[in-house]
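Re: export button greyed out
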Amino acid sequence: EVQLVESGGGLVQPGGSLRLSCAASGFTFSSYNMNWVRQAPGKGLEWVSYISSSSSAIYYADSVKGRFTISRDNAKNSLYLQMNSLRDEDTAVYYCATGGGYGSSPNWGQGSLVTVSS
Amino acid sequence: DIQMTQSPSSLSASVGDRVTITCRASQSISIFLNWYQQKPGKAPKLLIYAASNLQSGVPSRFSGSGSGTDFTLTISSLQPEDFATYYCQQSYSAPYTFGQGTKLEIK
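Workaround output, generated via the alternate export path:
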């Protein structure tokens, strides 16, 4: 069974940093592209970042470009999101999701809440 | 960036109704269009990928169609568990934008 478990969320002050992790199991992690998607309280889904299976291709939403860094460690079956210079508007539940056919995301974690507030 | 516009933003319907949700892309995205269902407090669930392909385990009352810029999600006969928020997403080119969502409520 595919499992994705996010961790690392919490309360951080504006301008601070946080690193999210996503532990994958139940599938060959190294063969799959991965995404981070977030959802602010009461709002819709916002795609954040993508990384290919070999880390050769990486993309970001304009809203996080230059502040967030996606990475992965295929030996540890783990995906990461380093978030720097955090802003109030980065407050959201952050989901990791697998890449599927035609760029879809068939498997999602339960989410990790990041709250940016002073 | 490609903008995705869903309509309507909200919809009231009854059990057994046929419901259609529309998603329009600001430029052609071929068939790189996915549909997700989300219930409160839960992660999104993939329903349809590549515009018309039913994800494994998803009931056949869900269907998708379209190509280019115009797409639809149809639920043929609403069931109580279908009341949720639905999102389209383009996976043609990064940033892989979502529509704003359509909240489907019980009439």
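The two ends of chain B are 36 Å apart (CA to CA). The button fix ships in the next patch.
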